Amino acid sequence: MDGPEPTAPIDYRFTLANERTFLAWIRTALGLLAGGVAVQSLAEQFSTPGFRRAIAACCAGLAVMLASVAHQRWRRVEAAMRRGDHLPDSTLAPLLALGVTVVALAAGTAVVVS
């Protein structure tokens, strides 16, 4: 990272908190990926072709997006702390909420239609 180590009032605890937040987003991405694999491998075949594959693909795509955006967010926050700037706005929570809503609607539709 560019810039000096964060100092008072921003210190190493903030850097570690930023890292923990990043790791939480990565755990969420891994959970979504595991969910996609589970749906594809373990879910019974839905009566409408393609639902299982679409739900699994949505989960996997959301996991990839979340992991890459989480890394970008971690770097931007770290750089802002080192410069002493305000923290940047986050798009992670709205993107994740939208993605999970799409997956939930698709899964609900698949269950109702089947």
Beta-strand percent range? under 5%
| Major beta sheet summary | none
Structural class given helices, strands, pairing?
Answer: mainly alpha
| Coarse shape | elongated
Indicate the percent of residues in helices: over 70%
Backbone CA Rg: 18 Å
Low-confidence spans: none
**Could you give the order of the helices and strands?**
HHH
Based on DSSP secondary structure assignment, what is the total number of beta strands?
A: 0
Mean residue pLDDT = 87
Helix count equals 3
The first-to-last residue Cα distance is 51 Å
Describe this structure in words.
This protein has 114 residues and is mostly helical. The protein has 3 helices and no strands. The longest helix is centred in the middle third of the chain and has 33 residues. The radius of gyration is 18 Å and the shape is elongated. The N and C termini lie far apart (51 Å). The mean pLDDT is 87.
